# Entry
Amino acid sequence: MRKKAEVALNTMTKLRRDEEVSLTILSKICKTLNADFGDIVEYVPDAEIWDLYNENRELFGKDHVRGEQLPIDGYHLMVHVWIRNSKGQYLISQRSANRPTYPLMWECVGGSVVKGEDSLLGAIREAKEEVGVDLMPENGQVLFTKTRKIIGGKIFNDIMDVWLFEYDGEVDLGNAMKYVAEKDRKPFCADLKTIYQVPTVEKTLEALERVTEKWSEKYPNSMKSWKQNWDAISPIFKFSTAVRKVIYTTNAIESLNATYRKLNRQRSVFPSDTALLKALYLPTFEATKKWTMPIRNWGQIYGELSIMYEGRLPE
# Structure
């Protein structure tokens, strides 16, 4: 808080408790307190904060919350990122079928640059978040910049940098589901379970071939990741099905990651590793308070792991 003296305690208490505070109400509160969005953004869950620029790309020194109407003279920075390998191939991704705009459309990486970032940092972050690749700053260049104002009566007010990055590293294509149409996902999931729920590696390979043969004609890319990463996948089958479920179930870590994102989304840059550790320490401490439910069949699982990794588990 940069303006603590101007903020009434009861106002902040209400904001902490009300997770449904609308951006319109928040805007009125900011005007009343003579404060910027950034002064009280920590009380707005999952708020995405932008720096505002003028038309000449000079910082206003003001914050803007995504979803609010942009001021007529204020612009936000955007990036479109094209990723090309040495073979001349471009990496694109497909939007989810559940997206309200342009569902299932293929596109390059793109998004808004958040508060504290420049165009380069925003491009690298978006590439990591959207397609999981780590781009090197020295391999990128801005092809051109386009400024949009009012189109069809709608205020866009964005400054868009179009980047090109050269990248020959590995590409994580994600799980097989991203290639499968919505109407086929339920039966496809049922078939996938026949692969990872079988007791031995031999039976897993049989199930893998059976599922691949069934779906490869319709979705030729859907099973590639299994075969390409088989050396990394196969060791899991030395465990029983109960232990395997603990390993491949990601709910716990996804919940923890969601907690980190919620509390640190507006902080895209940290001055040091120590600052980052401090920012993550308290969210981790708070998250552990919710870890009260035991893992199903934990006695069996603990016993098996204790035998396989003798002396490495606490009593």
Observations:
- Strands lie at 49-53, 59-65, 76-84, 90-91, 93-94, 106-107, 109-112, 140-151, 154-166.
- Confidence is low (pLDDT under 50) at residues 1-21, 41-46.
- Residues 176-238 form one domain.
